[in-house]
Amino acid sequence: MGWRRKNMLGIGVAVLMALLPATGTALSPGGGALHRACAGGTADEVLAALRAGGDVQARDDSGRTPLMIAALSSVDPTVVSTLLEWGADAALALPDGRTALMMAAARNFNADIAAALIDGGSDPNGRDTSGATPLMYAAAYNGDSRVLEVLLDGGADPGAHDASGNSALLYAARNPVGDGARLLLALGEGRGKNKAGETPLMLAARGNPNPEVVALFMEEDKDGWAAAFALALQHNPSLDVAALFLEKGLPVNGSLPQAGGPLMVAARFNPNPDVISLLV
Protein backbone atom coordinates (compact mmCIF):
# COMPACT_ATOMS: atom_id res chain seq x y z
CA MET A 1 0.00 0.00 0.00
CA GLY A 2 1.55 3.32 -1.10
CA TRP A 3 1.97 6.50 0.91
CA ARG A 4 -0.96 8.21 -0.77
CA ARG A 5 -3.39 5.35 -0.14
CA LYS A 6 -2.36 5.05 3.49
CA ASN A 7 -2.46 8.76 4.21
CA MET A 8 -5.10 10.31 1.96
CA LEU A 9 -7.53 10.37 4.89
CA GLY A 10 -4.81 11.08 7.45
CA ILE A 11 -1.53 12.93 7.16
CA GLY A 12 -2.07 14.02 3.57
CA VAL A 13 -5.34 15.79 4.26
CA ALA A 14 -4.04 17.20 7.54
CA VAL A 15 -1.08 18.76 5.77
CA LEU A 16 -3.30 20.09 2.98
CA MET A 17 -5.62 21.73 5.48
CA ALA A 18 -2.69 23.33 7.29
CA LEU A 19 -1.45 24.79 4.01
CA LEU A 20 -4.79 26.19 2.86
CA PRO A 21 -5.35 29.93 2.57
CA ALA A 22 -7.34 31.40 5.42
CA THR A 23 -10.83 31.20 3.96
CA GLY A 24 -12.67 28.72 6.14
CA THR A 25 -15.91 27.02 5.22
CA ALA A 26 -17.47 27.95 8.57
CA LEU A 27 -20.06 30.69 8.24
CA SER A 28 -19.00 34.18 9.24
CA PRO A 29 -21.27 36.76 10.86
CA GLY A 30 -23.15 38.91 8.41
CA GLY A 31 -24.36 36.11 6.17
CA GLY A 32 -28.09 35.52 5.90
CA ALA A 33 -30.30 32.56 5.12
CA LEU A 34 -28.89 32.28 1.61
CA HIS A 35 -25.34 31.98 2.89
CA ARG A 36 -26.46 29.31 5.34
CA ALA A 37 -28.24 27.35 2.62
CA CYS A 38 -25.16 27.49 0.38
CA ALA A 39 -22.94 26.13 3.15
CA GLY A 40 -24.45 22.67 2.95
CA GLY A 41 -28.06 22.85 1.93
CA THR A 42 -29.77 21.42 -1.10
CA ALA A 43 -30.49 23.25 -4.33
CA ASP A 44 -34.16 23.44 -3.28
CA GLU A 45 -33.18 25.14 -0.02
CA VAL A 46 -30.99 27.60 -1.91
CA LEU A 47 -33.81 28.29 -4.34
CA ALA A 48 -36.22 28.87 -1.46
CA ALA A 49 -33.82 31.37 0.11
CA LEU A 50 -33.49 33.18 -3.21
CA ARG A 51 -37.26 33.33 -3.68
CA ALA A 52 -37.57 34.69 -0.14
CA GLY A 53 -35.45 37.66 -1.15
CA GLY A 54 -31.90 36.47 -0.54
CA ASP A 55 -29.34 38.74 -2.20
CA VAL A 56 -27.21 36.62 -4.51
CA GLN A 57 -24.39 39.21 -4.40
CA ALA A 58 -24.47 39.84 -0.63
CA ARG A 59 -21.27 39.47 1.33
CA ASP A 60 -20.77 38.18 4.85
CA ASP A 61 -18.36 39.82 7.28
CA SER A 62 -15.48 37.95 5.64
CA GLY A 63 -16.42 39.39 2.26
CA ARG A 64 -17.71 36.09 0.88
CA THR A 65 -20.71 35.85 -1.42
CA PRO A 66 -23.16 32.94 -1.41
CA LEU A 67 -21.41 31.60 -4.51
CA MET A 68 -18.08 31.60 -2.66
CA ILE A 69 -19.65 29.69 0.24
CA ALA A 70 -21.04 27.12 -2.17
CA ALA A 71 -17.69 26.85 -3.94
CA LEU A 72 -15.97 26.15 -0.64
CA SER A 73 -18.32 23.62 0.87
CA SER A 74 -21.18 22.42 -1.33
CA VAL A 75 -21.09 18.94 -2.80
CA ASP A 76 -23.97 19.67 -5.18
CA PRO A 77 -23.14 21.42 -8.47
CA THR A 78 -26.80 22.34 -8.92
CA VAL A 79 -26.40 24.70 -5.95
CA VAL A 80 -23.74 26.53 -7.94
CA SER A 81 -25.74 26.50 -11.17
CA THR A 82 -28.84 27.78 -9.33
CA LEU A 83 -26.92 30.73 -7.94
CA LEU A 84 -25.49 31.51 -11.36
CA GLU A 85 -28.93 31.32 -12.96
CA TRP A 86 -30.13 33.87 -10.42
CA GLY A 87 -27.35 36.27 -11.41
CA ALA A 88 -24.46 35.44 -9.09
CA ASP A 89 -21.32 37.15 -10.35
CA ALA A 90 -18.57 34.55 -10.61
CA ALA A 91 -15.96 37.29 -11.12
CA LEU A 92 -16.44 38.84 -7.68
CA ALA A 93 -13.34 38.44 -5.51
CA LEU A 94 -12.04 39.00 -2.01
CA PRO A 95 -9.59 41.89 -1.50
CA ASP A 96 -6.70 39.47 -2.13
CA GLY A 97 -8.20 38.60 -5.50
CA ARG A 98 -9.54 35.15 -4.68
CA THR A 99 -12.62 34.20 -6.67
CA ALA A 100 -15.17 31.44 -6.11
CA LEU A 101 -13.34 29.25 -8.61
CA MET A 102 -10.04 29.65 -6.75
CA MET A 103 -11.77 28.67 -3.52
CA ALA A 104 -13.32 25.60 -5.12
CA ALA A 105 -9.99 24.70 -6.70
CA ALA A 106 -8.25 24.83 -3.34
CA ARG A 107 -10.79 23.37 -0.96
CA ASN A 108 -13.49 21.39 -2.73
CA PHE A 109 -12.65 17.81 -3.65
CA ASN A 110 -15.75 17.57 -5.87
CA ALA A 111 -14.58 18.40 -9.39
CA ASP A 112 -18.17 18.97 -10.49
CA ILE A 113 -18.24 22.19 -8.45
CA ALA A 114 -15.30 23.63 -10.39
CA ALA A 115 -16.90 22.44 -13.63
CA ALA A 116 -20.17 24.18 -12.78
CA LEU A 117 -18.32 27.42 -12.07
CA ILE A 118 -16.43 27.27 -15.36
CA ASP A 119 -19.63 26.44 -17.22
CA GLY A 120 -21.15 29.52 -15.58
CA GLY A 121 -18.40 31.82 -16.82
CA SER A 122 -15.68 31.64 -14.17
CA ASP A 123 -12.26 32.42 -15.61
CA PRO A 124 -9.92 29.42 -15.31
CA ASN A 125 -6.99 31.79 -15.90
CA GLY A 126 -8.06 34.50 -13.48
CA ARG A 127 -5.42 35.74 -11.05
CA ASP A 128 -5.35 36.82 -7.43
CA THR A 129 -3.19 39.73 -6.26
CA SER A 130 -0.11 37.47 -6.15
CA GLY A 131 -0.71 36.32 -9.72
CA ALA A 132 -1.86 32.83 -8.72
CA THR A 133 -4.45 31.10 -10.92
CA PRO A 134 -7.14 28.54 -10.03
CA LEU A 135 -4.88 25.79 -11.42
CA MET A 136 -2.13 26.85 -9.02
CA TYR A 137 -4.57 26.72 -6.11
CA ALA A 138 -5.66 23.22 -7.10
CA ALA A 139 -2.08 22.08 -7.64
CA ALA A 140 -1.00 23.30 -4.22
CA TYR A 141 -3.94 22.38 -2.04
CA ASN A 142 -6.38 19.94 -3.60
CA GLY A 143 -6.09 16.21 -3.07
CA ASP A 144 -8.09 15.21 -6.15
CA SER A 145 -6.42 15.52 -9.54
CA ARG A 146 -9.83 15.49 -11.22
CA VAL A 147 -10.17 19.12 -10.15
CA LEU A 148 -6.98 19.91 -12.09
CA GLU A 149 -8.31 17.97 -15.07
CA VAL A 150 -11.52 20.02 -15.07
CA LEU A 151 -9.54 23.25 -14.96
CA LEU A 152 -7.26 22.13 -17.78
CA ASP A 153 -10.22 20.99 -19.86
CA GLY A 154 -11.74 24.42 -19.23
CA GLY A 155 -8.69 26.18 -20.66
CA ALA A 156 -6.39 26.70 -17.68
CA ASP A 157 -2.82 27.42 -18.76
CA PRO A 158 -0.31 25.03 -17.11
CA GLY A 159 2.55 27.22 -18.29
CA ALA A 160 1.40 30.36 -16.45
CA HIS A 161 3.55 31.82 -13.66
CA ASP A 162 2.63 33.94 -10.66
CA ALA A 163 4.40 37.15 -9.66
CA SER A 164 7.17 35.12 -7.99
CA GLY A 165 7.71 32.95 -11.03
CA ASN A 166 5.96 29.87 -9.67
CA SER A 167 4.14 27.62 -12.12
CA ALA A 168 1.37 25.19 -11.22
CA LEU A 169 4.00 22.44 -11.17
CA LEU A 170 6.04 24.35 -8.60
CA TYR A 171 2.90 24.64 -6.48
CA ALA A 172 2.24 20.93 -6.90
CA ALA A 173 5.69 20.13 -5.55
CA ARG A 174 4.45 21.12 -2.08
CA ASN A 175 1.26 19.03 -2.20
CA PRO A 176 1.58 15.76 -0.24
CA VAL A 177 -0.87 14.05 -2.58
CA GLY A 178 1.10 13.42 -5.73
CA ASP A 179 -1.58 12.88 -8.39
CA GLY A 180 -1.60 16.53 -9.41
CA ALA A 181 2.18 16.56 -9.73
CA ARG A 182 2.06 13.46 -11.94
CA LEU A 183 -0.57 15.05 -14.15
CA LEU A 184 1.35 18.30 -14.56
CA LEU A 185 4.67 16.54 -15.12
CA ALA A 186 3.07 14.62 -17.97
CA LEU A 187 2.12 17.92 -19.61
CA GLY A 188 5.77 18.97 -19.65
CA GLU A 189 5.25 22.64 -18.79
CA GLY A 190 6.41 24.79 -15.88
CA ARG A 191 9.49 22.74 -14.99
CA GLY A 192 11.86 25.68 -14.62
CA LYS A 193 12.93 27.68 -11.57
CA ASN A 194 10.98 30.45 -9.93
CA LYS A 195 12.44 33.94 -9.41
CA ALA A 196 14.13 32.78 -6.19
CA GLY A 197 15.97 30.09 -8.14
CA GLU A 198 13.95 27.23 -6.65
CA THR A 199 13.20 24.12 -8.70
CA PRO A 200 10.24 21.80 -8.16
CA LEU A 201 12.60 19.29 -6.54
CA MET A 202 13.93 21.90 -4.14
CA LEU A 203 10.41 22.87 -3.06
CA ALA A 204 9.37 19.23 -2.64
CA ALA A 205 12.48 18.37 -0.63
CA ARG A 206 12.09 21.43 1.56
CA GLY A 207 8.55 20.86 2.72
CA ASN A 208 6.73 17.86 1.28
CA PRO A 209 6.24 15.02 3.80
CA ASN A 210 5.51 12.44 1.11
CA PRO A 211 8.65 10.70 -0.19
CA GLU A 212 6.75 9.46 -3.23
CA VAL A 213 6.26 13.04 -4.42
CA VAL A 214 9.89 13.90 -3.72
CA ALA A 215 10.94 10.81 -5.67
CA LEU A 216 8.87 11.98 -8.65
CA PHE A 217 10.86 15.17 -8.85
CA MET A 218 14.16 13.43 -8.18
CA GLU A 219 13.61 11.45 -11.37
CA GLU A 220 13.05 14.71 -13.24
CA ASP A 221 16.08 16.51 -11.82
CA LYS A 222 18.96 14.14 -11.19
CA ASP A 223 21.47 16.98 -11.14
CA GLY A 224 19.73 18.64 -8.22
CA TRP A 225 19.87 15.88 -5.63
CA ALA A 226 22.63 17.30 -3.43
CA ALA A 227 21.05 20.74 -3.10
CA ALA A 228 17.66 19.16 -2.46
CA PHE A 229 19.12 16.85 0.21
CA ALA A 230 20.53 19.89 2.00
CA LEU A 231 17.14 21.58 1.98
CA ALA A 232 15.42 18.42 3.24
CA LEU A 233 17.82 18.13 6.15
CA GLN A 234 17.45 21.80 7.00
CA HIS A 235 13.68 22.15 6.77
CA ASN A 236 11.79 18.89 6.31
CA PRO A 237 10.93 16.90 9.45
CA SER A 238 9.88 13.87 7.41
CA LEU A 239 12.06 10.90 8.31
CA ASP A 240 10.88 9.13 5.16
CA VAL A 241 12.12 11.94 2.92
CA ALA A 242 15.55 11.95 4.56
CA ALA A 243 15.69 8.16 4.21
CA LEU A 244 14.79 8.46 0.53
CA PHE A 245 17.86 10.55 -0.22
CA LEU A 246 20.06 8.05 1.58
CA GLU A 247 18.46 5.18 -0.35
CA LYS A 248 19.27 7.05 -3.55
CA GLY A 249 22.93 7.07 -2.57
CA LEU A 250 23.46 10.52 -1.08
CA PRO A 251 26.45 10.14 1.29
CA VAL A 252 25.97 10.49 5.01
CA ASN A 253 29.48 11.85 5.37
CA GLY A 254 29.52 14.00 2.25
CA SER A 255 29.52 17.76 1.93
CA LEU A 256 26.34 19.53 0.92
CA PRO A 257 26.21 22.69 -1.22
CA GLN A 258 26.58 25.79 0.97
CA ALA A 259 25.59 23.79 4.04
CA GLY A 260 28.31 21.50 5.39
CA GLY A 261 27.98 17.84 6.32
CA PRO A 262 24.54 16.18 6.50
CA LEU A 263 24.73 15.43 10.22
CA MET A 264 25.81 18.97 11.06
CA VAL A 265 23.01 20.42 8.94
CA ALA A 266 20.32 18.21 10.47
CA ALA A 267 21.57 18.71 14.02
CA ARG A 268 21.55 22.47 13.60
CA PHE A 269 18.29 22.99 11.75
CA ASN A 270 15.95 19.97 11.55
CA PRO A 271 13.15 19.90 14.13
CA ASN A 272 12.86 16.09 14.09
CA PRO A 273 15.49 14.31 16.24
CA ASP A 274 14.78 11.06 14.37
CA VAL A 275 16.25 12.61 11.22
CA ILE A 276 19.44 13.26 13.15
CA SER A 277 19.46 9.68 14.48
CA LEU A 278 19.09 8.37 10.93
CA LEU A 279 22.40 9.98 10.01
CA VAL A 280 24.41 8.77 13.02
Would you give the CATH topology of the largest domain? Serine Threonine Protein Phosphatase 5, Tetratricopeptide repeat
Helix/strand class: mainly alpha
Average pLDDT figure: 90
* Strand composition percent: under 5%
Determine the fraction of residues in helical runs and give it as a percent range.
Answer: 40-55%
CATH class membership of the largest domain? Mainly Alpha
List unreliable stretches of 5+ residues: 1-19
Shape: elongated
CATH superfamily of the largest domain: Ankyrin repeat-containing domain
Order of helices and strands: HHHHHHHHHHHHHHHHHH
Major β-sheet annotation: none
The domain count comes to 3
Strand tally: 0
The number of helical elements comes to 18
Q: What is the second-level CATH architecture of the largest domain?
A: Alpha Horseshoe
End-to-end CA span:
29 Å
Using only CA atoms, what is the Rg? 21 Å
Keyphrases for this structure?
single chain, mainly alpha, Serine Threonine Protein Phosphatase 5, Tetratricopeptide repeat
Tell me briefly what this model is.
The protein has 280 residues and is mainly α. It has helices at 3-7, 11-19, 33-38, 43-51, 66-73, 77-85, 100-107, 111-119, 134-141, 145-153, 168-172, 179-187, 200-207, 211-220, 225-235, 239-247, 262-269, 273-279. It folds into three domains: 30-89, Ankyrin repeat-containing domain (Serine Threonine Protein Phosphatase 5, Tetratricopeptide repeat); 95-198, Alpha Horseshoe (Serine Threonine Protein Phosphatase 5, Tetratricopeptide repeat), CATH 1.25.40; 200-279, Serine Threonine Protein Phosphatase 5, Tetratricopeptide repeat, CATH 1.25.40.
